[in-house]
Design goal:
Blueprint (H helix, E strand, L loop, with lengths): L13 H12 L7 H9 L20 E4 L2 E3 L2 H10 L7 E5 L5 H7 L4 E6 L2 H13 L5 E5 L12 E6 L8 H5 L1 E12 L4 E9 L2 E10 L10 H4 L1
Parallel strand pairs: 3-4, 3-6, 4-5, 6-7
Antiparallel strand pairs: 1-2, 7-8, 8-9
Helix pairs in contact: 1-2
Bound molecules: S-adenosyl-L-homocysteine.
């Protein structure tokens, strides 16, 4: 049954979700209790196309249309955990896709702005987020490679698509002490970077190797190709 905050306890997929948390997340070092709880609650199967519903809790990305994918559960948990959210933050996500990661973020931060390049995907995500009651998420259609200056600064920024380099506007839109999580590399392989802002200094840490769909737009592959 769905509740107003989107938590679905006792639905047909609750056991699959619990197994996902235990075997895909906890075993691989996801330790933040709030992140684990959010992943236990958000009904991932409602964010994938109906024909993929039974695969929703498998250890991989799935197609969502427009040649795009919903990220692997572990990658969502790792990126979100990397932001170190406590609950009061304003977060920007670049690449709404299905809206799933935005829903997870909405459980962990005060406000989530998420930008999607394709209006079709944004519309679908907006509708499922509204239906499930995730009302602290705002979906905006646009080129998120430029960030979202109108609501900056952000305590956390997650980019869910692979960038050729770190887009300068995203660094500029970080609050002091804020973190940016972004896959950077070429089209086939990237490293997940975690960048923390201290005043005008940016500290960069390399997390895991990963593979995301390409970041489009001005600071994405449009300009690089
Ligand atoms: N976070 C998503 C996964 C998204 S996959 C989820 O939970 O389902 C990456 C998404 O980034 C795709 O939907 C793609 O259309 C979008 N994207 C790519 N370049 C973008 C850009 N410049 N601005 C906004 N969205 C972009």
């Amino acid at each position: 049954m769905e509740t107003t905050n989107g938590a679905s306890r006792g639905d047909a997929y609750a056991a699959a979700r619990e197994a996902m948390v235990r075997y895909q997340l906890q075993r691989r070092g996801i330790t933040d209790a709030r992140v684990l709880q959010a992943m236990r609650e958000v009904p991932r199967h409602l964010f994938v196309p109906p024909e993929w519903r039974d695969e929703a809790y498998e250890d991989r990305p799935l197609p969502i249309g427009e040649d795009q994918t919903i990220s692997q559960p572990y990658m969502v948990a790792l990126m979100v955990q990397s932001l170190g959210l406590k609950g009061h933050e304003r977060v920007l996500e670049v690449g709404t896709g299905s809206g799933y990661q935005a829903a997870v973020l909405s459980r962990l931060a005060a406000k989530v702005y998420t930008v999607e390049y394709f209006a079709t995907l944004a519309e679908r995500a907006r509708e499922v987020l509204r239906r499930l009651g995730y009302d602290n998420v705002e979906v905006i259609v646009g080129d998120g490679s430029l960030g979202l200056p109108q609501y900056a600064p952000y305590d956390g920024i997650i980019v869910a698509a692979a960038a050729p380099r770190v887009p300068p506007p995203l660094k500029e839109q970080l609050a002091d002490g804020g973190r940016l999580v972004i896959p950077v590399g070429d089209a086939l392989a990237q490293d997940l970077l975690i960048i923390t802002r201290h005043g005008e200094t940016y500290q960069e840490e390399r997390s895991v190797p990963c593979r995301f769909v390409p970041l489009l737009g001005q600071e994405g592959w449009d300009a690089a190709c």
